[in-house]
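pinning this so it doesn't scroll away 📌
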Amino acid sequence: MAKDLNKVMLIGRLGKDPELKYTEKGDAYCTMALATGSSYKDASGNDVERTEWHNLTAWRKLAEICSKYLKKGSKVYFEGRIRTTTSEKDGVKRYFTNIDVTDIIMLDSKAAGGGAQSSGMPEPMEPSGPKNDDDDLPF
């Protein structure tokens, strides 16, 4: 039997600070808006920039991590699943697409004020072993 796949991978910047909330049962969830950009040439050969906005929700411990370490403008890799919900108001049915986040990687550099060091998380370790120097290369 073939398996289905519902997987989304996005890299972009947060459009506002994450909002941490709690369900009636006490489960944490964090809502975020992510902007992803692309460009293309129109029929006249002009460059056109396009921004897509994505609504994301992280749950439980991941929600608390997002709320604590991410902020407006943070560059982040998100992985998750698409979830569509519907709502009806005044006889009009509306559809909403959301990404349920399952994994994140913070991509801001330390120098830019983001990333692991500024968030209080441990700094990544340098690999040990011999380092190549350009002077040692045979070509």
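📌 and the second one:
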Amino acid sequence: MKVRNSLKALMKRHRDNQMVRRRGRVYIINKTQKRYKARQG
């Protein structure tokens, strides 16, 4: 999992990316391409 300052650019890189808020953190999850998994901050 990558930790990034901004997830907006990463969000547009694949169409299956989903932005999810869990426990006050923002995550990007992707069921088909696991390499796009990321967390903000």
